[in-house]
Amino acid sequence: MDAQKADMFIMTHAKFFEPHLIPAIREKLLQTDESKWMSIQSLTYREPVLMLIISILGGHFGIDRFIIGDMGLGVAKLLTCGGLGIWTIVDWFLIMERTKEVNFEKLRMLLG
């Protein structure tokens, strides 16, 4: 893939990934062939700030974990009422980072 497309992707999607992963993503994009460009563009990513808001409002029931795909943790959080509230508060600090990790894994799986 050419550098212009890779840079355009980085500029429009950087908020979905951890800053230290951006150079690795760019390198992987540059090594990817053009045939995957449409697939890369069509991927949907979870918004980390929105996940924080959802965690604050519905994290007590595990909704935040269900949305990002952590089904086991979502069920555990639901059954324990957010770990009696403690787990809910801890997730307020961790959910944005976890969302960015899930977004990176999704892109990494597509790029191979």
Overview of the structural elements:
The protein has 112 residues and is mainly α. The chain has one domain (3-111). Helices cover 74% and strands 0% of the residues. The protein contains eight helices and no strands. The chain has helices at 3-13, 22-31, 37-42, 48-58, 63-68, 71-79, 81-84, 86-111. Helix 4 (48-58) packs antiparallel against helix 8 (86-111). It is elongated, with a radius of gyration of 16 Å. The mean pLDDT is 93.
Write the layout of secondary structure elements.
Elements lengths: L2 H11 L8 H10 L5 H6 L5 H11 L4 H6 L2 H9 L1 H4 L1 H26 L1
Helix pairs in contact: 1-2, 4-8
Percent range for β-strand residues: under 5%
The total strand number stands at 0
Characterize the biggest β-sheet: none
Number of domains: 1
Class based on secondary structure composition and strand pairing: mainly alpha
How does the overall form come out from the CA principal axes? Answer: elongated
What's the gyration radius in Å?
16 Å
Spell the H/E element sequence.
HHHHHHHH
Number of helices: 8
Estimate the helix proportion, in percent. Answer: over 70%
Cα-to-Cα separation, first versus last residue: 14 Å
Mean pLDDT: 93
Low-confidence stretches: none
List keywords for this structure.
112 residues, mainly alpha, elongated
Brief overview:
The protein has 112 residues and is mainly alpha-helical.
